[in-house]
Amino acid sequence: MRGFTLIELMIVITIIGILATIGIQEFWRYREEAMEASALNDLRNIMTAEEAEFASEGRYSDQGCGQGPAWLFNGTKHVSKGVGYCVNATSDRYAAFTGAKGTNREFGAGSDDEGIFYKRVSNPHIKAQSETTTTISGWGGQVL
Length: 144
Known about the structure:
Blueprint: H1 6-57, E1 64-67, E2 70-72, E3 77-79, E4 83-89, E5 94-100, E6 105-110, E7 117-120, H2 124-130, E8 142-143
Antiparallel strand pairs: 1-4, 2-3, 4-5, 5-6, 6-7, 7-8
């Protein structure tokens, strides 16, 4: 009766380890992309709600800062779990920021600019809360 040698078993285990390492890295990358997509989607929802608020009330709505899961705009817009947000507004302008926990990208938009901006930060779900003292035009992100 012939079995596997120790060398053959070690080679198989090494190959499985290499494949697992590659798979785990890909999993984390896809997870980060999904979290960033969630933060970006939440920002788009906030922008839509701000413009709807302005159209119906004639002013923008200041929602403050927080972390999801949360409901904003009187329960009409949801912020996803693990997404930090800040919505700073006056009656005629707003700046909104979102960032997903565990990623390194923060998104921002405002009434002064066209499009959504992003920048890389070390901790977006906390960093977003300190960004609201500036308008989006002075924020310095890159246009998506």
